[in-house]
Amino acid sequence: MESIQSIKQRFGIIGNDPTLNRAIEKAIQVAPTDISVLVTGESGVGKESIPKIIHSLSHRKHGKYIAVNCGAIPEGTIDSELFGHEKGAFTGATATRNGYFEVADGGTIFLDEVGELPLTTQVRLLRVLENGEFLKVGSSKVQKTDVRIVAATNVNMFDAIKKEKFREDLYYRLSTVEINLPALRERKEDIHLLFRKFASDFALKYKMPTIKLTEDAIPVLLNFRWSGNIRQLRNVAEQVSVLEQNRTIDALKLKEYLPTGSTNLPAVIKNTKAESDFSNEREILYKVLFDMKADLNDLKKLTMELMKNGNDSEVQEKNEGLIQKIYGNEEDADFEDAKEDLKLLSIPQNANPETLQDATDKYHFAEEIEEEETLSLHDKELELIKKSLERHQGKRKLAAAELGISERTLYRKIKQFDL
Question: What is the Cα–Cα distance from 247 to 209, expressed in whole angstroms?
Fold first, then answer.
């Protein structure tokens, strides 16, 4: 078994952090087996090195090693990329194509950003992990493959499972062994060492003297948060190497290359904003509903006055004003229908006391109906319209007469309920 130090030299890994050493040690130990491995860690920590170590130390080292960035392949073509497709399986499939799992048979596949896989592809991948079987897109023939799968992700898998974006059974299949790589800010002793290595590499690449940091610049380098991890550190080293004529960099000059306000704010800020937006929308919706309730209460009061006072012109005028407030333009069909419906409620002033009392009792009874029942009026209205139309074999005029509404109102209801 190779030592950790020899592996570092072989794969160009810089650093002596104990957490980093433990991750490499786990990779060395698991390599001879066929166990699936999940590499976790933030973006830019160097997760791609672990599957290379595992493949090179396994019995599959003479087989193919294929790295696939799952987040970079469009959702519509990823199944074809991974599992292949038959000729004519979809538009543009002019020939049969072998997928990565068929090409890498006997080797290793590294699935980077596995958390970005669509759910349909996750089902196919689970089948490969369980019994080594897969189907090409557009084929019914089951094929076998013998591949070692190493996956990597920078997302919180438990959050993804909770949000139903990643299958729980697939997660446990992939993470038989989980190897976590630490963020750069968690291995401060390695930061200056890495910076010097990058500075030396770029000096050689661009044929110029190597840049060096002054004593006051080193703490600035170490205490910066490095939210982009090793990738960000490398970019800063390259910028300084190329742009600075003075090859000695002090703290003030180094700060010019470090992004200001880079505090690596947690993702919860974004979620809070989303919740806040939702809360604002909910408040607006409540306000609209309360306004509608107030308008309806006013309408009920005026309707009661109409029932008591008959066709009194003042009451009619109040009603029409309220209807206009609720329904808008007088030319609108809903406005005219509302006026017509209110007229149906009108009771002549010379109506006998029994008729008026009966209408009043019905109105008060309607007021006392529970809110839960009111919410089902939509369904009851729909049911009544359906039954009436069926009874009259779809003749709207007869159905409208039976329901006690105008044919135009019935036609509007038919369109509303998509009957």
Answer: 7
